[in-house]
Amino acid sequence: MPDDTANVQELRDLVANFVEERDWNQFHSPKNLSMSIAIEAAELMELFQWVDQKNMDEISIEKIREELADVVIYCLSMANATGIDVASAVRDKVKVNANKYPVERFKGKYK
Fold first, then answer.
1. Which one of 30, 32, 53, 74 is CB 3.0 to 4.6 Å from 37, fit for a cystine?
2. How far apart are the C-alpha atoms of 77 and 18, rounded to whole Å?
3. What whole-number distance in Å separates Cα of residue 79 and Cα of residue 17?
């Protein structure tokens, strides 16, 4: 199911079923999941280590895809473990960021 037809709950259920079938919920505390998110994010970053703009095509899109999926899977597991509604959390955070970084002051700027 591609992004334009999938929904967050379907993905959460997919991950929850995978974890439950393996009896891994016992290991999926928020602490452990937060560490796993950081570890997988570091593995994603590692793909880009020592690569400059000229050599970006050397990075396998498949490897990026795998590492990104690992990050998202652990994030969905965190949402499952904590009961956080991901869609609401993202919408709320985008509102906070929109107020913090208004377009008229920050368009095209990173500071």
1. 74
2. 10
3. 14
Does residue 6 sit in helix, strand or coil? coil
Structural domain span for residue 31:
8-84
Q: Structural domain tally of the chain?
A: 1
Query: Tens digits of per-residue pLDDT, 97-110?
Result: 999 999 999 999 88
pLDDT in tens, 28-42: 999 999 999 999 999
Residue written as tokens 């560490």?
35
CA atoms within 13 A on the CB side of 37: 15
- The phi and psi torsions of 25 (rounded to 5 degrees) equal -55, -30
Q: Which one-letter DSSP state was computed for residue 5?
A: T
Q: What single letter denotes the amino acid at residue 41?
A: A
Whether 24 is covered by a domain: the verdict is yes
Residue 75: give its domain's CATH number: 1.10.287.1080
Torsion of CA 68, 45, 36, 22, to 10 degrees: 40
